[in-house]
Amino acid sequence: MFTELVHAIHPHLMKDADVPDFMRNIIQMLCDIPEEDWSTKKDPSSEQANKDSSLRKFYTKGPTKKLAKSMLGRLTSENFIEAIYHDDSLNDRTDTVLESLAEDIQPFAEDVDKDNVGEVLFDLFKQSLDFIVNPELENDRIIASAKEASRKAKGIYGLGLLEDCRHTCSYPGCGKHLQTVNDKYHTANNYEVAGIKGSRSLSYENLIAMCHDCFQNYVFKHTKTEEKDLVTIKKLQSDARSMRQTLDEVAIEKGITKVIYNLSKAKPTQLLSLNYDALRVPEKIDEELYLFLVDEVTAHVTKYYLFIEKTMKDLAQQSQLSDGLLRAQIADSYRKLAEKKKSPEIIYSALSEKIRSITKQDIRFCSIVVSYFIQSCEVFDAITK
Predict the structure, then answer these.
(1) Which of 176, 193, 231, 367 could form a disulfide with 153 if both were Cys (CB 3.0 to 4.6 A apart)?
(2) pLDDT of residue 189
């Protein structure tokens, strides 16, 4: 916290000073040093006590416990606050400077403004030194700060982030549901929002929903590998959201619900005699890159293609389905997704989810119907060799 504070205020106080001079000035502002100790080892701002190289380390990594204890024993709010509101020439700092200073430390204290920025900053510096001397207090600050950021993020992006993760913890290996249901079937959201890369910026691209346990573990300490895993998961969630928004622009013929329903009720005897050769699937999906998708679609087409084709013809004859309109809508949906330059797997999944949202049927049957449209050329173009 100490380093975050000094980095936040450096541009506003002594912005032209190099790091050692700036750090010596901050120590002098914070501490009451008797005149007889000036420029001695008892003066923590002196060169005898701390070399320039040490001060540079304190600027980037925080003071040592020894320096923090020394400063805590000499803290003076009066000198510090006076130095915040007045420059070295004892001129009042402008409102613009004070407002900018307050704005940059708002992530640490919500109620700060130009009129109390000196008092708030002193309290924050005292806390930061206490945290260095007693690390347990720092843990409390970290989790309290993270939960405050989570509260703000939930107010802005909460519902969208829950939709992105399907109300399940986003952390790899965790499957906890992010809603609770009581005996009266009342539901409540039960989750936190974490910043993936630790930034204080509340941007959607850096936020992800987690259960409380995973949130706390990630906030306290996480590896670069864990961070990269969450970046990947966030990208998948963002891609899925983008696909859903794209497909919301396209209407799908309501008769498709009947197709899915009939498929879900198909008897084994109706399928055994309808074996079909899936000739076009490998021509439209690169088998070397998407082997499992090719296998899945091929299996669907081989077993169900003729059944779905017959079902659609029968429904069209009964005026329960507009075959041409449905094919045009599926093709239009595919084209809109293809413009996003997403992988065949993402497009296949997005189309399946779209049909599921319309028909309210099992996702398996929806994927089978998407496979049908791949074979019948509404979805995916031939691979260019």
Answers:
(1) 193
(2) 86
